[in-house]
UniProtKB/TrEMBL annotation, chain A:
Its cofactor is FAD. InterPro entries: FAD-oxidoreductase/Apoptosis (IPR050446), FAD/NAD-bd_sf (IPR036188), FAD/NAD-binding_dom (IPR023753), FAD/NAD-linked_Rdtase_dimer_sf (IPR016156), Reductase_C (IPR028202). Keywords: Dioxygenase, FAD, Flavoprotein, Oxidoreductase. PANTHER family: APOPTOSIS-INDUCING FACTOR 1, RIESKE DOMAIN-CONTAINING PROTEIN-RELATED. Residues 326-408 form the Reductase C-terminal domain. One of its GO terms (cellular component) is cytoplasm. This is 3-phenylpropionate/trans-cinnamate dioxygenase ferredoxin reductase subunit.
Automatic annotation (TrEMBL), chain B:
This is Ferredoxin, 2Fe-2S. InterPro entries: 2Fe-2S_ferredoxin-like_sf, 2Fe-2S_ferredoxin-type, Adrenodoxin-like, Beta-grasp_dom_sf. GO terms for biological process: P450-containing electron transport chain. Keywords: 2Fe-2S, Iron, Iron-sulfur, Metal-binding. Residues 2-102 form the 2Fe-2S ferredoxin-type domain. It comes from Flavobacterium saccharophilum. Its cofactor is [2Fe-2S] cluster. Belongs to the adrenodoxin/putidaredoxin family. GO terms for molecular function: 2 iron, 2 sulfur cluster binding; electron transfer activity; metal ion binding.
Length: 414, 102
């Protein structure tokens, strides 16, 4: 697989695609490597977009995944501002948006996901309505918020993106209201205690989170929007940020006839149902050995780890994908670190440290099996949780919750 | 302006100059092998682990609590460890030598 004339094309130049390109070069691939992306910017970090980057005045050049020079040094060709229209598997070519065709020997699909825009009446006429997924989105949001007098922002959706964006916009001087359809924020991913914590955190910062708010329609009047909910309430917004989830970019793969489930189905080496085509990152539906089920993940960890696995596999080294997922979120002065997947938990243990700053951790169990840990301002709990989950250690729940037990890893085991 | 030297695990020496930002960002720009900085510099991934010598540690200051916590169970960590996303580039650290751990 190291012939000089082989071409590897990567569709999608975000965390997964870029890391893959460099990993493949590092693995000794001598052929061409091309990265194609519809975004005109040099590839950048996405997680900070809703966090520190939104509140800064930085250009995206401060936030690049790799310097421009690195691509030259790695002999990696960037084809930016171009999208792939179709994958033609029989002759192994791609048709691009500039009507050209390109051939590949190996193809990597790293198309990620896009913001989901719900079908709401009046949404298309709303003024200053944005989703937050790209650097251009952030520029547009910053401009809109900075240029309007009242700075009333309604954020649709109380997931991580919505909460982080709200915290950042508040820092920028906006008056922010979050409208969440479910009865609590982060309901899909955390225990009620974590939802309560974030609800209170935002309230303390004068960001109001309203739950059970099912938005039905939007009316634009001049530069103002009126956001209406099914319970009859309405909210005035100079800007609206939509953060109600994502849709996976599977269409290219689907149209090419690759196997699709809740994402592009890949094996333990990130190969799709076509041996010449791999898929990595947010768009993949993959098997997680630790949790013994197929999952799809939106995370940097998954993007980076799958990039390495796929690159190794393409040069003939088959390392199976086997990792514990991890995530993070920054809101105000709160640092949340998450390890593991809490889905399926039936009991939690909360440990709150005594001290001046807020510091606690929520440990999710299914019976006695530790599934996940949410650590708030508590990196120690995060690393202990990581180790305990990886090694399937049995945790002494009484000691864990007992503040008289010193918080040390060895003290937590049964 | 600070002149900073990175020594990678395969003994490559890379000298860079910078005025601001974090040491991790500088290392990424210079494509220093072993500094991944996956989380973008918010001390969440521990993929920018470096060692300093004692004198240089005085220049940068010691590891913060969160760095120590992140590295607590890392077999490679020692008292000269830091996560370099948490080190600001400034004249105060001119001349330091960072040994990349991974």
């Amino acid at each position: 697989m190291k012939e000089n004339n082989n071409v590897c094309v990567i569709i999608g130049a975000s965390h997964a695609g870029v890391n893959f390109a460099f990993a493949l070069r590092q693995q000794g691939w001598l052929g061409e490597i091309r990265l194609i992306d519809g975004d005109f910017h040099l590839p950048y970090h996405r997680p900070p977009l809703s966090k520190a980057y939104l509140t800064s005045k930085d250009g995206i050049d401060k936030n690049l995944l790799k310097s421009e020079e690195s691509y030259q040094k790695g002999n990696i060709t960037l084809q930016l501002g171009l999208s792939v229209l179709s994958i033609n598997r029989i002759d192994k070519t791609l048709t691009l948006s500039d009507a050209t065709q390109q051939s590949y020997d190996k193809l990597v699909i790293a198309t990620g996901a896009r913001a989901f825009i719900p079908e709401l009446s009046g949404l298309e006429n709303a003024s200053n309505l944005f989703s937050l997924r790209t650097a251009a989105d952030v520029t547009a949001i910053r401009d809109a918020v900075n240029n309007c007098l009242n700075k009333r922002v309604v954020v649709l959706g109380g997931g991580y993106i919505g909460l982080e964006t709200a915290a950042s916009l508040h820092k920028m001087g906006a008056k922010v209201t979050i409208l969440e359809r479910e009865e609590r924020v982060l309901s899909r991913v955390t225990a009620p205690q974590m939802s309560d914590f974030f609800q209170e955190l935002h309230a303390k910062n004068n960001v109001s989170i309203l739950t059970n708010k099912n938005v039905t329609h939007i009316e634009a009047k001049g530069s103002e929007n009126f956001v209406f909910c099914s319970d009859g309430s309405s909210f005035i917004a100079d800007c609206i940020v939509v953060g109600v989830g994502i849709r996976v970019n599977i269409e290219l793969a689907q149209d090419a006839g690759l196997e699709i489930d809740n994402g592009i189905k890949v094996d333990a080496y990130n190969c799709t149902s076509d041996p010449s085509i791999y898929a990595i990152g947010d768009c993949t539906f993959h098997y997680n050995p630790h949790y013994d089920r197929f999952i799809r993940l939106e995370s940097v960890q998954n993007a980076v780890d799958q990039a390495k696995i796929a690159a190794a596999s393409i040069v003939g080294q088959n390392n199976r994908y086997d990792t514990i997922p991890w995530f993070w979120s920054d809101q105000y002065d709160i640092k949340l670190q998450i390890v593991g997947l809490s889905t399926g938990y039936n009991n939690v243990v909360i440990r709150t440290e005594i001290g001046e700053i807020i510091k606690f951790s929520v440990w999710y169990f299914k019976d006695n099996e530790l599934l996940a840990v949410d650590a708030v301002n508590n990196a120690k709990a995060y690393v202990y949780g990581t180790k305990a989950i990886k090694e399937r250690k049995l945790i002494d729940k009484l000691k864990l919750s007992d503040l008289n037990t010193e918080f040390k890893l060895e003290n937590l085991f049964l | 302006m600070a002149k900073i030297t990175f020594i990678t695990k395969d003994n490559q020496s890379i000298v860079v100059e910078g005025t601001s930002g974090s040491v991790m960002e500088l290392a990424k720009q210079a494509n220093v092998k072993g500094i991944d900085g996956d989380c973008g510099g918010v001390c969440s991934c521990a993929t920018c682990h470096i060692y300093l010598n004692e004198a240089d540690l005085l220049k940068t200051g010691p590891a913060s609590e969160i760095e120590k916590d992140m590295l607590e169970l890392d077999d490679d960590a020692n008292e000269f460890s830091r996560l370099c996303c948490q080190i600001e580039v400034s004249e105060a650290i001119d001349g330091v030598v960072f040994q990349v751990v991974r």
